[in-house]
Amino acid sequence: MFKNNVGGIDRIIRAIIGVVLIAVFFMYAHTTWTWVGLIVGLVLLFTAVMSSCPIYTVLGLRTNKQDDS
Predict the structure, then answer these.
(1) pLDDT of 59 higher than 70
(2) How far is CA 67 from CA 5, 8, 13, 28, 62, in A?
(3) What are 4-52's pLDDT values in tens digits?
(4) What pLDDT is stored for residue 3 in this prediction?
(5) 5: part of which helix (H) or strand (E)?
(6) Alpha-carbon span 58 to 50, nearest angstrom
(7) Per-residue confidence band for 68, with pLDDT thresholds at 50, 70 and 90
(8) What pTM does this model have?
(9) What is the per-residue burial (b if ≥16 Cβ within 10 Å, else e) of 1-18?
(10) Which of 28, 56, 59, 23 is nearest to 42 (CA)?
(11) Is 65 exposed, middle or buried (0-12, 13-18, 19+ CB in 10 A)?
């Protein structure tokens, strides 16, 4: 369904930052910035799990070294 364009290290970094942002949402007062952090964290975690980034697709980038031709 989605093109895999996110490589291994990129996925790990996205997952870590996503989990941290989600944790910050639950640990601190629910302000506007924590809600923004939650949304960004969920998007990062989703793109890490799916190995696909829509922004990378639009820009023609890929950190995945596999050839899926």
Answers:
(1) yes
(2) 10, 14, 22, 43, 11
(3) 999 999 999 999 999 999 999 999 988 999 999 999 999 999 999 999 9
(4) 83
(5) none
(6) 16
(7) low
(8) 0.85
(9) eeeebbeeebbeebeebb
(10) 23
(11) exposed
- Rounded to a whole number, what is the largest CA-CA distance in the chain? 47
What's the sign of the alpha-carbon dihedral 58, 64, 65, 69? negative
Tokens of 49: 């799990």
Residues 16 and 63 sit within 8 Å (Cβ to Cβ): no
Tokens of 35: 């809600």
- Which of 42, 68, 38, 64 lies closest to 52 in space, CA to CA? 64
SS3 8: helix
